[in-house]
Every structure is written in C-alpha cells, then in structure tokens.
Amino acid sequence: MTSSLNHVEPANEAREVLHYAVGKSTLGCILVASSDKGIAAILIGDSPRVLAEELRAGFPNALLRSRSDGRLVQRVVGLIEDPAVTFDLPLDVRGTPFQQKVWTALRNIPVGVTTTYSDLAARIGDPKAVRAVASACASNRLAVAIPCHRVLRNDGSLSGYRWGVQRKRSLIEREAASVRMRDHA
To answer: Which one-letter DSSP state was computed for residue 36?
Structure first.
C-alpha cells in the first residue's frame, strides 16, 4: 500500500510572478498586471482592493507583486482616455482555443466600430456559438486591449459588460468621438 505521504512537493517550486500596479482613469481604478510574456490582466473597477482580489482570484497560483512604477498603467490609461492611441504593448493572452479565437477577432475590429454577438460568432466561423462568444467576452481579463466593449446585442442595445454597462457606454462613445475627430482632421 502506498501512502500519499511518500510524495513530497518541492519546497521552492517555481511559481509564476505577476507584477501589478493600480492607477486612475476617468472610468475608475485601473489595475495592470504583467508576466514575463506581457500584460496578463487589465481590470477596471472602483476599488484598488477589490481589483487586487479579482486579480488574485483570476491567477490563484501566481505570486503577485505590487509595483510602484506606473508607466505601464499610464500607457493603458492613455488608451482609455484617447482610443486613437495605438496599443502596441505585448499581451499574455490566456484562455481556451475558442476564447483565443474570439479575442483575436475582437482585436481586429477597428476603433469606433461595433458588432453583435451573432456577427462575431459568424466571423469566427461558428454562427451557432453566440452564447459561447458572449461567455468568451465575459471571461476577458484584458479590458480595452481586447475590446469586448465593442460587442452589442442583435438589436444594437448595450448588454452586460464585465466592468459595468456604463463603462461600456463610455468606451463606445469615446471611440465614436475619436473617429469623428480623426475624420474631420
């Protein structure tokens, strides 16, 4: 008979380290967490403490390290405040192959353009996967960088948004204004 006591976990097993910082934008608090590969999370909320808890829940095996350097956060805030800014920072996108396909399609939607869940499902070649597409949008941990806020209901109305419908409305309005300014320049 073997015992589970015979298996000993290494004491210094390497754990992934995520560095994070919190800043402010006109949408509220912004938490940006990065790994060695790139930005792994961009979270929006009202409380730095709640955002840190959300990060911890989303990456339960990671070692989280607060960072005082806010340059990365300021780049993300810049994208929120001015959607015309090119976002060229590396991302550490984590999800199932289906989620990754949805998120890639979302990143190909131009600033100021919206789509529907049905259209997005068709765009990825799976027109019957509307609910799965909505679920992938809800699972997105990279607010703004993966623009799930650009997805609307089939009737064009706003639907749920992980970080609040009012923030979704604000992001869509900012993007539309940014496009109008660009077109009139």
So the answer is: S
d(CA 38, CA 26): 24
Return d(Cα 52, Cα 34) in angstroms, integer: 13
Using CA atoms, how far apart are residues 22 and 24, in angstroms rounded to an integer?
7
Helix 97-107 with 130-139: angle, nearest 10 deg: 80
**Residue with more model confidence, 58 or 88:** 58
pLDDT above 90: residue 68: no
CB 153 within 8 A of CB 161: no
State the catalytic residues. Answer: 148
Contact 174, 83 (CB under 8 A): yes
For residues 54 and 31, give the distance between their C-alpha atoms in angstroms, rounded to a whole number: 10
Which among 34, 2, 5 has a CA at the least distance from the CA of 21?
A: 34
Once rounded to an integer, what is the mean pLDDT over residues 11-30?
Answer: 86
pTM flag (> 0.90): no
Q: H or E stretch including 168?
A: helix 165-184
Is residue 132 exposed (0-12), middle (13-18) or buried (19+ Cβ within 10 Å)?
Answer: middle
